[in-house]
Amino acid sequence: MTNILWVCIINLSVLWGELMNINISKLIFEKTESININFDYDLSNSDLLRDHNIIEVSPINFSGKIYKEEENLFIDGNFSGEASFRCSRCLKEFRKDVFDDIEFDISVDEDENKDDTYLKGEDLNLSVILEEALAFSLPMKILCSEECKGLCFNCGQNLNIDKCNCDEDIIDPRFEKLKDFFSKNEEV
Ligand SMILES: [Zn+2]
Ligand SMILES: [Zn+2]
User: Fold this and answer.
1) Could you tell me which of 72, 90, 107 has the C-alpha nearest to residue 161?
2) Ligand 2 centroid distance, CA of 136 (Å)
3) What pTM was estimated for this model as a whole?
């Protein structure tokens, strides 16, 4: 089967909204050197969105190739797309390109590879590989900018836009109880 046909099959599975499984028996049992992949993956229902403050994500394009060397399977490629995030400090929505290289390898030896998250029999789960690569490319804390000043914890003003009139000495409400505790102790 030609690579072009493979790509058609992969694209069809996108339309059907199925998991991105690629059968790699050609690489294992026949002399096919590599399988080229190029697909757009819809991540809009992924848990990734909730875990990384993502409001919306465009289809993520993944292009690359899968090949086998000895008992290892290699996935080499890159992904790109666009997502809108919510800043975890000021809650503003902002758009950002997402992209990175993917270099992944896995043993095809069943004795060595007990975990079937990525490879189950001859089916390679590209969706989980892509989701993990995307998650790994994102910063731990999603910020609209490194300098984001966040919101005033007292009045909620976005401090990137303007200062507020709150007293700078106002104590964070989360520490209010501690303040009471100290003042009671002082009275004793
Ligand atoms: Zn921000
Ligand atoms: Zn304020």
Assistant:
1) 90
2) 35
3) 0.74
